[in-house]
Design a protein that fits this description.
Number of strands: 17
Shape: elongated
Oligomer: single chain
Number of domains: 2
Length: 337
């Protein structure tokens, strides 16, 4: 059954959350809900904000579409348990309505495959104005971190690090065209340490014993290296009585200066050990707050960051209330394309 979304079909720059009937793997993450936007894209992130166009999207044609312009313009979707399809049907570009209606789809397959279908593209995509709204075609994913704004404040700033993007050549988008994205194996798909470290399908994977899943890492080792439980031999040694040790009478010649020097040396050794431990932790756990803080101040950041502040933005989106699209039910419509 194909469903017309009543609110999105009569709105501009609005987005609505929709539940999936299956787990959809997106960059290795299993998603059970997505957010459909009137602007020709699907937001795939878990945390919503007003700049949904920035990253974490599936965008068959992200542009300044206004479904509210015409009664014939609709945003519709269907879900058969193995395939979820979103269709922007006869939508027009804001302030360029005379250019004609666009009809296109994004199809999410249960196995992770994504397909973009284009039925009607009335004008070259590269001629669409991107001043008032971003113009993007492709995929993107990122992760978000919360960082304190200052040492004296409890407020936190949201920072998104985009680590991958696929952009389609917009000159290739014409009526009747289609693009298919096939997912590659990821470290996150491994369910055991042995599979994670020995699989020929992936490389550069490490095993997170706490989360019980694979992760991308530069560290090399065996499964035993990732196990936080002490070996039996080490644990049993604590249960045996200590061997007899012959002791000599205390040395009365040890001076106070010698004790101070020994304390300083021990403190320096401890400081070096903690520094090495911190460096190792930052490089193997890049998604927690302290490494975020340091990565922001590196001259060669691994990920470009996008900082969100309370300021006006032409491409901001507002998410409709949960359950708001349930009003008066949905309208069943004929299948298109």
């Amino acid at each position: 059954m194909e469903i017309i979304h009543g609110i999105l079909s009569n709105a501009h720059r609005q987005a609505a959350r929709v539940a999936l009937s299956f787990d959809f793997p997106f960059y290795g993450h299993q998603l059970r809900q997505i957010i459909i936007a009137t602007g020709g894209f699907i937001y795939m992130g878990e945390i919503t904000h007003r700049m949904l166009t920035a990253t974490q999207y599936v965008a068959p044609l992200m542009a300044n579409f206004d479904p509210s312009f015409s009664k014939n313009s609709t945003v519709r979707y269907s879900d058969n348990g193995n395939l979820f399809v979103v269709q922007w049907d006869k939508v027009r570009i804001k302030d360029r309505e005379a250019a004609g209606p666009f009809t296109f789809q994004a199809a999410l397959h249960k196995n992770g495959t994504i397909v973009f279908n284009y039925k009607d593209i009335p004008l070259p995509v590269e001629e669409i104005n991107s001043t008032e709204h971003p113009l993007k075609v492709g995929l993107s994913d990122a992760f978000m971190g919360y960082l304190p704004t200052s040492q004296l404040s409890e407020a936190k700033r949201r920072t998104i690090y985009e680590y991958h993007r696929v952009a389609i050549d917009t000159t290739k988008i014409v009526s009747g065209s289609a693009f298919e994205f096939t997912p590659l194996p990821t470290c996150l798909q491994h369910t055991s340490c042995d599979l994670c470290l020995t699989s020929n399908l992936t490389s550069g994977c490490g095993w997170c014993n706490t989360l019980q899943r694979g992760w991308i890492t530069t560290a090399k080792g065996m499964c035993e290296d990732y196990n936080t439980v002490l070996p039996e031999a080490t644990m049993s040694s604590f249960n045996h009585s200590s061997p007899d040790i012959q002791t000599s009478p205390p040395n009365n010649g040890m001076t106070e200066n010698t004790a101070i020097i020994a304390g300083v040396v021990a403190a320096l050794v401890l400081l070096v050990a903690l520094t090495l431990l911190a460096v190792y932790y930052i490089n193997t756990h890049p998604t927690v707050a302290p490494p975020f803080y340091l990565m922001q101040r590196r001259t060669n950041n691994y990920w470009p960051s996008m900082k969100f502040r309370n300021q006006g933005c032409h491409s901001s989106y507002a998410e409709v209330e949960l359950g708001g699209h349930e009003k008066e039910g949905f309208i069943e419509a004929e299948h298109c394309c």
